[in-house]
Amino acid sequence: MPTKNTSHNPLYNQGNPLSVWREALNQVIFGTETKAGKVFDIVLMGMILLSIGVVMLDSVEDINPQFAVYLYWAEWFFTAIFTLEYLLRLMCVRKPWLYARSFYGMIDLLSILPNYLGLLLPGIKYMLALRILRLLRIFRILKLYEYLQEAQVLMRALRNSLRKITVFLYVVLTLVVVFGSLMYVVEGPASGFTSIPKSVYWAIVTITTVGYGDIAPKTPLGQIIASTIMIMGYGIIAVPTGIYSAELIKNRQSDPLDNQACPDCGASGHDQDANYCKYCGQKLNYED
Predict the structure, then answer these.
(1) Which of 224, 254, 36 lies closest to 150 in space, CA to CA?
(2) CA 200 to CA 204: how far, in whole Å?
(3) Do 37 and 80 share a structural domain?
(4) Tens digit of pLDDT per residue, the chain (288 long)?
(5) What is the domain range of residue 235?
(6) Does the predicted TM-score (pTM) go above 0.70?
(7) Is residue 191 part of a domain?
């Protein structure tokens, strides 16, 4: 009797496959090749946009008093829908904890958590605007993985340059503490430099060329020091940019990415020739 070929089906492994209903649910929620999966993703994107609109309208003073009740129940309606969707996502993968810890899993949780926390801390409910991050799934839905590939290049370059940038930030921190302390001694409270922390704040604002202007030196010596910091600021800004640009050149790649979602953790965006999930190590393709 012929066996079912699962060589290209990510829903099977060397152990037990997903149950029938979980397999079907996985294809709808994480799959983008089926009609049901496409409809699910499009409806989900629409509901995310509507929910963000509700949160924004709720913060408008001219609208909130008139429609507060409707907006309140609309927020809870979307929260209930997204909570159900989050639970279904956990149910249709083999290892729910891996999905919960993944990038999209954390975003899904953050999109519903503020409304529940808002029962204790009312102001935090406006953090529901974080749902906009869920629209990142549009890259997977529209198969725009070349854009995600570029994002991965950026993230890889950032990770590789992290140590150099950390050393650079340590040097900058040392400089602002030194200059802030110096300005506190030179200018003093009479010019607004009432403490070393406030003087360090001024040094940070000045060396980053932001220049709020809430504190300014009055003495000639203080103005000379300030001018020195300003000139240094222009050179300092270029350093992390150069470090990051060098890493970008080293880390560019052109390999296309696969749209297949891992059945264990729900992650997608693997290399075309990948046999295992880059996030959880689960085998992606199997043969009986």
Answers:
(1) 254
(2) 6
(3) yes
(4) 444 343 333 433 333 566 788 888 888 888 766 788 888 888 888 888 888 888 888 888 888 788 888 988 998 998 899 899 899 999 888 888 888 888 788 888 888 888 888 777 776 766 766 777 776 666 555 555 555 566 667 777 888 888 888 898 899 999 999 999 999 999 989 889 999 999 999 999 999 888 888 889 999 999 999 999 999 888 888 888 888 788 777 766 545 555 566 766 666 666 666 777 766 766 765 443
(5) 160-251
(6) no
(7) yes
One domain, residues 43 and 81: yes
**What secondary structure does DSSP assign to 57-88, as a single string?**
HHT-TTTHHHHHHHHHHHHHHHHHHHHHHHHH
Q: Are residues 55 and 108 in the same domain?
A: yes
How many domains does the chain contain in total? Answer: 2
Please tell me whether residues 170 and 224 are part of one structural domain: yes
Q: Residue written as tokens 């506190």?
A: 184
Question: The domain that contains 91 carries what CATH number?
Answer: 1.20.120
